[in-house]
Every structure is written in C-alpha cells, then in structure tokens.
Write a structure and sequence with these properties.
This protein is mainly alpha-helical and about 400 residues long. The protein is built from 20 helices and no strands.
Length: about 400
C-alpha cells in the first residue's frame, strides 16, 4: 500500500514537465513562470515536512498519511481545473503539503512493521517507486496530454489517490518500537513531553545536537546535491557538450535512470542488509563506499569524449548512486528512537532538499553561464565524494555509540 502511494507520489510530482508546452500555450505563460511550478511544490513540501513529522511522532500515523494523500490528490485534480497561472501555481504548491505528510511519516510507520535488520530491503522497495513513478509521470503526462489535453492528464493521474487515501485509513498502526524489541523486552516507553509546539521544536533541536545524525544528513545532502544536479543537467550536457540529438539524449538518459533506479535501489537494499549483519554501521559503510565509488565513475562519464566510455560510465555511476537509497533511509530509522522517527525523517527531507537538489541545478546553470557547462558539471563528482567522506565519518562516529536497537 505504501509503495503504491509512493509510486503515485512521484507520478504526480513529475506530471508537470511533459505538460509545460501545452500549459504555456493554454495560459500564455513564459518559460520562467512555468519554471516556478517546481519550486512552488518543493518549497512548500520542505516547510510542511517538519510539521507532519512532529504530528507523526505524537498520534496516529495512518490518518495524517491518508489526509496527505487526499490533499495532494485533490490538488492534482484542481490543477486540471485551473483557469489561470495563479490558480495552477497555488494547486501545485498544495501538492507539496499533501506529499510532505506521506514522506515524513510513512518510513517511520514501516519501521514498526519490519525489524531493523530488514529495513534496507524495505526502504529499497519503497523507494523503487521513485524512478518508476517519475517515468510514469513523464510518460502518462505526455501521452494523455498529447491525445486528450493537459486537463485530462491531471484528472486521470490525480483521482486514484482518493481511493488510496480512503484505503490508508484501514491500515493498522502498530505500537511504536514494536520491531525494536530485543529478547522479549517491551517496546520503549514514550518520552514525557509537554504538549504544544515547544515540544516539537525540542525534538528537532535534540536531533541537531547529535553528531551522528547531523553527519548522516549532511552526507545525504551532498549526495542529493550531486544526484539532483546530474539528473537535471545530464540530458542538456549530452546534447550540448557531446552533440547527441535532443530526443536521443532525453529518452536515452531517461531509460538509464529507470533501469538503474529499479535494479540499483533493490540491489542496494539487499546488500545493505547483508552489510548490517556484519557491522551495526553496515548501512553507513555501504552507502559511503558506493557513493565514493560513484564519484570517479561520474567524473569519467563527464570528461570522456568517447561514447563507448561515457555511456557505460553513466550507467555504472547511476547504478552505484541508487544503491544508497534504501540503506541510508534505514540508517536514519535505526539511529533514532521509535518516538522521533517521523521527526528525524522530516528534518532530513528539509535539509537534503534545502542544501541538495534545490540549489544544485541553478548553481550549475550559473557556473555554465560564467564558464561552460562542461566545467560546471564537474561539481557533481566533487559533491558525491564529499558525501561519501561525510558518511565514512558518520559511520566512525556512530560506532562509538551503543545503540540498543542493533545490539
């Protein structure tokens, strides 16, 4: 159920890009106005995530997820009803509120369905929906929009979420910490906290004082910076720097992302769980080493002029990068208490987008204007190397702490 919702999450998120030409013609908007439809979603998504994270640690988790899925589905349908740019902008921003509820709380809920030793695979299956859902968003948005109009695309892709939202309410909400019991011990007792916003702020301040958690999130941000910059600019790089025809560059790189995302994410989940059996910091060591391995391969892909070299290098780099998706989320879930997991996930969402894939595309674009795109993309392997090194430091710092959940 949660994986199906995540698939719809990314489908709705990536529905707009293939519809941009039709939206511009229908509403008379510019490229710049169309370009703001993504930040409208992303900024609201980042801000709302900590709010829902705090909610998810204090009460029911299935109800706010259902509410979030319902909100973003209604917002997607409202996008199809928009009569002007301002209405479309507002509806896309509203999608961010709905998706924030799911993204912050769903991983915490899953942690109480599955034991710590299996969470790499669990989060890998959950996050496999990212490349598949994004691809479906492009494919369905473009196909339905071309044949039936952009309004129909929003209606068809938004309506199924209402059914998933209604079904989500029926999903059981297990006790927090139910899968963290060791040798028959009882789940952890809920912390005593004063009600109100101050308590929620206190949880986030507590997380930001923990060295291991901060290092993990900073490494995740550097990783997201590199992955986001690569994903945004690679089709343009292939076209303008390598001379690949536009259609071939876009479709070819899209196919690489789908295949490597699917197999890399699943393989990484299983391998991460295997590493966890050999070290309590197995998820971190695995994520660090695969990301460090991806950095020189990405550098080769961006510097070699030979197609027989840069095409395989792109595939290998993307495969290595997607392998970290499941293990790094599992590392966050295992690092914190069952009563602060949603908050930890929410703070991570806020930080990795604020420091990662929100600034990386415009920064690379600015560097390309002042220099060249070929040089600007060199920041990608540097960011990946930094992320891998930070995760190595995180694994060392975390190894000095006793974490009962993995004892």
């Amino acid at each position: 159920m949660l994986t199906a919702i995540n698939l719809l999450n990314y489908l709705d998120r990536y529905l707009v890009p293939p519809l941009v030409p039709e939206l511009e013609r229908a509403m008379g908007i510019t490229h710049a106005q169309a370009g703001w439809l993504w930040p409208a979603f992303m900024l609201v998504y980042m801000i709302a995530a900590p709010v829902f994270g705090s909610w998810g640690d204090r009460g029911s988790r299935t109800r706010p997820i259902a509410l979030g899925v319902g909100i973003w589905s209604i917002a997607t349908v409202l996008s199809g009803l928009a009569r002007n740019y301002h209405q479309l902008f507002a509806s896309r921003a509203l999608v961010g509120i709905g998706e924030a509820a799911y993204a912050a709380i769903a991983p915490a809920l899953l942690a109480d369905y599955f034991p710590a030793s299996a969470r790499g695979r669990v989060y890998a299956v959950l996050n496999m929906a990212l490349p598949v859902g994004a691809a479906l968003g492009y494919a369905l948005g473009g196909s339905i929009g071309h044949h039936f109009g952009w309004r129909t695309a929003f209606f068809v892709c938004g309506a199924p979420g209402l059914l998933l939202a209604a079904t989500m309410v029926l999903l059981p909400d297990p006790p927090r910490g139910a899968q963290d019991m060791q040798f028959g011990s009882q789940p952890p007792e809920p912390p005593v906290r004063a009600p109100g916003p101050a308590a929620a702020v206190g949880v986030y301040l507590s997380l930001m004082r923990r060295v291991s958690y901060v290092l993990l999130v900073l490494g995740f941000a550097a990783y997201t910076f590199g992955l986001g910059g690569l994903g945004f600019w690679m089709p343009t790089f292939l076209e303008q720097v390598r001379g690949i025809p536009p259609d071939t560059a876009t479709v070819g790189f899209g196919a690489v992302v789908i295949v490597t995302g699917f197999f890399g994410t699943l393989a990484g989940g299983w391998l991460g769980d295997w590493c966890l059996k050999r070290s309590p910091q197995g998820y971190l060591w695995f994520s660090a080493l695969t990301t460090l391995a991806a950095a020189p391969v990405a550098l080769l892909a961006l510097t070699s002029p030979a197609p027989l070299i840069y095409y395989p290098a792109i595939v290998v780099a993307e495969l290595l990068l997607f392998m970290s998706t499941g293990p790094v989320n599992a590392a966050i879930a295992n690092m914190v208490s069952a009563y602060e997991r949603a908050s930890a996930m929410a703070l991570s969402i806020f930080a990795i987008h604020l420091l990662g894939d929100v600034p990386s595309p415009p920064l690379i674009g600015h560097l390309a204007v002042t220099g060249s795109l070929a040089r600007a993309v060199m920041i990608v392997p540097v960011a990946l190397a930094i992320g891998g090194v930070i995760w190595l430091l995180c694994a060392r710092a975390d190894s000095r702490l006793a974490r009962p959940a993995l004892a």
